[in-house]
Amino acid sequence: MSLGIKNRQDQKRVIVIGAKGHIGQAAMTDLGEHEVIMASRRGGGGDARHLRVDITDVDSVSTLFQDVIEHHGPFDAVISAVGHCEYADFESMTNDQWATTIASKLVGQMNVVREGLKYIREGGSFTLISGILNVKPMPKGIADATTSGAIDTFVKCVAHELPRGIRINAVNPTVIESAWEDYRDMMPGYQPVADKLVGKAFRRCVDSFITGQVIFVDA
Amino acid sequence: MSLGIKNRQDQKRVIVIGAKGHIGQAAMTDLGEHEVIMASRRGGGGDARHLRVDITDVDSVSTLFQDVIEHHGPFDAVISAVGHCEYADFESMTNDQWATTIASKLVGQMNVVREGLKYIREGGSFTLISGILNVKPMPKGIADATTSGAIDTFVKCVAHELPRGIRINAVNPTVIESAWEDYRDMMPGYQPVADKLVGKAFRRCVDSFITGQVIFVDA
What molecular function does GO assign, one term (chains A, B) (predicted)? Predict the structure, then answer.
């Protein structure tokens, strides 16, 4: 039985930036009914559905959106599943480590929204990634936590001023199962969540009407 | 009558960075019993109690603390009442405006803590400034809001790892009365608060035992 209510429009064209990473892969677990264009730092080596982008470079971000429109057509949603963070104790974290983290996780993701706004369809959506450390801090996680707090705040505040019915949200997950081997030694007492739950969160941001929200995915 | 309970140690040496600004002046309204060393971008023109500092320059910040110790002695508390923000609609805010705001309000204040940690006395405290726009967003305030959210998060998370009993908090005020003339046109529907209430918040951070907290001063 079904209620016969379909809570989405027709198929959307969704750009997933950081498609090769754990979170990017998780984000794609529930996008099956949409047309997905992948983007990553290395690109897909000639695959027309997997483009190259460096989010710390505004021109590269702009080129990505132009290329998608030229080769595939207008797009409805952008998922950012990227943002490099450096991990160190606060007292030993260097200027460069702070600068790298801020340029990628914070400014890089804002670049995606700033440039994407010029190209995205009316009623489109942006979904950014933050991470649980801003509400569950851990040793060596201060740069991740600080930039995650900035992204969560950015999304909540900027949503009010996006034009043309465009929405923006953030997914704030704890560590996911597929990445647990890499993080388990750093994160005693944290419970990984299934990748598909993170996929559900991204999917809800793409297909629902919510905006200015931070979707926590935690156990 | 008095309870005879004195909730503070003896006189402390407190460095107030941004002492010439509205918030810096407000911060000093309730520090009377302490010895205050002022610092600002222009300095006090030879006044030994008013030094020069540029928080966006790590060396300048380090020099400030060394100079205080050399000329005045060890210090117990640092109040940061600085952080330049650019104001513009999100769609028109430039790379430079974002970079300037992040370098000052976010990285600049973190520089104060990073460098100050090397010099501050055991049991000392840092108090940073954020601002109400991260919880009460307004048009043109996105860079202020985003960096305030980052500062609030930073303070809450980094408090866990400061050594030697050192504390850190943030004061998050709405606009204050002495600055209302400058901001009133930009902030319809906001109620300014008395400068001395902001002074009380800074004083409490200096003299209480709280750490990892954001003290909102709002009406």
Answer: oxidoreductase activity
For the CA atoms of A66, A69, A71, A77, what is the dihedral angle to 10 degrees?
A: 110
From residue B65, alpha-carbon distances to B53, B71, B77, B109 in Å are: 10, 10, 11, 14
**Partners of residue A35 on adjacent β-strands:** A13
Residues A81-109, mean pLDDT to the nearest whole number: 97
Model confidence, pTM: 0.95
For residue range B76-94, list pLDDT tens digits in order: 999 999 999 999 999 999 9
DSSP state of B176: B
> Rounded CA gap, A30 and B68, in Å?
58
ipTM of the complex: 0.94
Task: Name which of B140, B124, B190, B105 is nearest A146 in CA terms.
Answer: B105
- Could you tell me how many CB contacts below 8 A there are between chain A and chain B? 98
Q: What value does the mean pLDDT of chain B take?
A: 96
What tokens were used for A105?
């996780």
What is the full DSSP assignment across B132-170?
A: GGGTS--TTBHHHHHHHHHHHHHHHHHGGG-STT-EEEE
Tokens of A161: 């001023």
Higher-pLDDT residue of A9, A171:
A171
What does the block give as tokens for A208? Answer: 């629902």
3-state secondary structure of B65: helix
Q: Please, what is the average pLDDT of chain A?
A: 96
Question: Which 3 state secondary structure label does DSSP give B168?
Answer: strand
How far apart are the C-alpha atoms of B78 and B12, rounded to whole Å? 11
pLDDT over 80 (residue A2): no
CA B45 to chain centre: 22
Contacts of B160 in chain A (CB under 8 A): 137, 139
Enumerate domains of chain A plus CATH numbers: 13-217 (3.40.50.720)
Task: Characterise A80 by phi-psi region: left (phi > 0), alpha (psi -120 to 50), beta (else).
Answer: beta
* Distance between CA atoms of residues A91 and A102, nearest Å: 17
Instruction: Convert the pLDDT of each residue in B142-167 to its tens digit.
Output: 999 999 999 999 999 999 999 999 99
Give the mean pLDDT of B51-65: 98
- Residues of A contacting chain B (CB within 8 angstroms): 58, 89-91, 93, 95, 98-99, 102, 106-107, 110, 114, 117, 133-134, 137, 139, 141-142, 145-150, 152-154, 156-158, 160-163
Residues of chain B contacting residue A158, judged by C-beta atoms under 8 Å apart: 90, 142
Which candidate, A77, A63, A65, places its Cα nearest to that of A166? A77
